[in-house]
Amino acid sequence: EEIGQARMDILAWFSENLFEHRAFKQAQLLILGESNTLKTTSVLILREAGVDIYEVPTDTRNFKFEDWSKSDVWFMDEFKISSFDLDSLFKLLAGNSVVLRGAYEQSGHTRDVNGPIVLAAMHEPAFKTAADKKAFYNRVKVVHLEATDIQLDSKRYIKTILELKEAYNSGHTEIMLSE
User: Fold this and answer.
1) Between the CA of residue 95 and those of 75, 90, 103, 116, 138, what are the distances in Å?
2) Residue 42: in which H helix or E strand, if any?
3) What's the pLDDT at 31?
4) Cβ neighbours of residue 52 under 8 Å, at least 6 residues apart?
5) 104: how many CB neighbours lie within 10 A of its CB?
């Protein structure tokens, strides 16, 4: 069974963002798709390949510093622009230093790691201004999962990410993906 182009795009993004040096303002990942297109599964299944994923709470006041400070990737499922202060979100997506506060915290914690972030949503975010929309889309790579993307060969998917990791660890700077 084929992995499919959209999921290959997701794996390619993970390869470029987990196993290689992340450049400042390197695009984060936005996965869009209707319900039951396995957006969440396409990300969380990578735990089986040893990827440490921090699931960001939908209520961003509930950040847990000890959980996110050591994770490989942040995952924001059911992503909603309204959950964030746009300035902080744009800094976070670009890889700038940003202060995040958990519940009942006055000072918060500074996230100054340019780590990979994956957002997943059913619909494109709605912005109040064209400038905000442009700023957001300058910071993300968009992958659309279609209703036909409801199959996921998990063993092959995990095998592919492990092969990408091994290729990177072996010193191959050009990692080739093939279905």
Assistant:
1) 15, 9, 23, 9, 13
2) helix 39-44
3) 95
4) 70, 71, 72, 73
5) 6
> Where are the extended beta strands (E) located within 89-173?
98-100, 109-111, 117-121, 140-145
pTM: 0.80
The whole-number pLDDT of residue 122 equals: 93
Residues making up the chain, counted from first to last: 179
Q: Would you list the DSSP string of 3-41?
A: --HHHHHHHHHHHHHHSSPPPTT--EEEEEE-TTS-HHH
Rounded Cα–Cα distance for residues 111 and 100 (Å): 7
Q: What are the per-10-residue average pLDDT scores of the chain (179 residues)? A: 76 84 88 89 86 78 58 87 82 80 59 81 93 95 81 74 74 52
- What is the structure's pLDDT at 1? 47
CA neighbor of 116 nearest in space, from 147, 86, 95 = 95
| Cα 131-136-141 angle, rounded to 5 deg | 140
Indicate the helix (H) or strand (E) that contains 53. Answer: strand 53-55
**DSSP letter for each residue of 57-74:** -SSGGG--HHHHTT-SEE
Q: What's the Cα-to-Cα distance from 34 to each of 56, 102, 143, rounded to whole Å?
A: 20, 30, 12
Please give the structure tokens belonging to residue 80.
């909603």
The pLDDT value given to residue 118: 94
